[in-house]
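Hi all, long-time lurker, first post. I run a small reading group and we've been trying to get comfortable going from sequence to structure in the token notation. Rather than ask abstract questions, I figured I'd post a concrete chain and ask someone more experienced to write out its structure so we can walk through it together at our next meeting. Sequence below, copied exactly:
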Amino acid sequence: MAGRARQHRSGGGAGTGVRPATLRLRADYLAIVTITAGETLRLLVNAGGEGSLTRGPFGIQHFAGGFFAINPIPAGNYGFGRVTFSDADLWVMVVA
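-- Answer (accepted) --
Happy to help. Here is the structure in token form:
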């Protein structure tokens, strides 16, 4: 929960920081400032390495282990002809 609160505070901080620059902008300039702020935030989040929240370009990994652990479909490949799916693929299709 603490991580979620930190995300909300950082989002609010980013919004408060951009607000003075956008108070009197026309729509086209407001769009440019919004895109710039979004891209800056994206670069900051992706810039981290091992110790950052999202692990930069490596992303958050191994978060679905519990989901695939409860897969009731027996291991193997299923399908016919050139259309085949693994047990994990089928599990995702069943749940989605």
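A couple of things your group might point at:
The first strand starts at residue 77 and ends at 80.
The mean pLDDT is 76.
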